[in-house]
Amino acid sequence: MIPFAAEIHIRSRMQRHFNLWVPLAVLWILLFPLVLLLLPILMIGCLVVRIAPFRAIATLWGILTSMADTELAIEFTDRSFSMHLY
Length: 86
What we know:
By secondary structure, the protein is α+β, with helices and mostly antiparallel strands. The protein has helices at 24-48, 53-65, and strands at 5-12, 17-23, 71-75, 79-85. It starts with a strand and ends with a strand.
């Protein structure tokens, strides 16, 4: 399943916190027309470089769907950033 929400936390050492919840479902809906427009270009590009187009699309879909439950955490000396995809 593709991720439908992201929870972002930004913390500083000075006890400042910033939490943000981003609904990715809206992003997927907005990107759908762009994907449909770029799909023929992807298919032609795959044929030019001799890659199976449906296998390439299946691989991209597999990467996208495996992003659910991904956690990313970056820590610096004075602040930290974390993101969780649902």
